[in-house]
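Ticket #4471: structure export looks truncated?
Reporter: QA, pipeline team
Priority: medium

Steps to reproduce: submit the single chain below to the structure queue and open the exported record.
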Amino acid sequence: MKALQAQLRRITAVQMAQDPAHDIAHLDRVWANAQRIARDENARTPGRVNLRVLIAGAYLHDLVNLSKDHPDRHLASSLSAQKAAPLLAGLGYDADEISAAQHVIAAHSFSAGIAPESFEAEILRDADRLDALGAVGIARTFMVAGAIDRALCDPDDPFAANRPLDDQLWSIDHWHLKLLKLPGDMATDTGRKIARKRARLMLAYLRQLAKEMDTELPEHWARQLDLPPAPKPKGKH
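Actual output as written to the record:
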């Protein structure tokens, strides 16, 4: 598997248009997440996971990498799946493996709305979404925001206490509209467990951010994770 990983890394280094949030390091993290999920889930049902298909999905899922504000963003995963086929054939994948890997790639995307129909597709989708959460997820949020010139938050109402959420204008709103909901949308038990832990860290970050902005995080943010609201602050921070 190490040799195949090295081959796939070399391919993506040449074939994938990289940005700060979608680079080789992102692919490595997705593969690490996928292996952890596969290992834990395989312990319950041995032999379910085809690792060759899974690693292909991990390293080729962003072959066609369109920015978050691109009008064809929802097509990126299907375009990546198409582009992956000849590359996998060159690595000795047979027709069934290529078809399976293409589905894994196409179904990973949140915006594409393609339901995963294999265990490998469920794992890869969870693994990719985990990289949008936790400490890495916080960093990636702001890297993407900087790349598309999107502001951190509404200066008059940073946490949408009295306005509609709009992640086309404000980066932090994206956490409420999408990222903090991801734990509840995980397909595997392992993915869900990891996601909830990482999302709790993000909520703690938001609470600290609110303190530093001399305001409070509205309770509806905590409800995204079914967590209790933050305690009332005792003083300025």
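Status: closed, not a bug. The export was complete when the record was re-opened. Leaving a note from the reviewer for reference: The CA atoms of residues 180 and 225 lie 7 Å apart.
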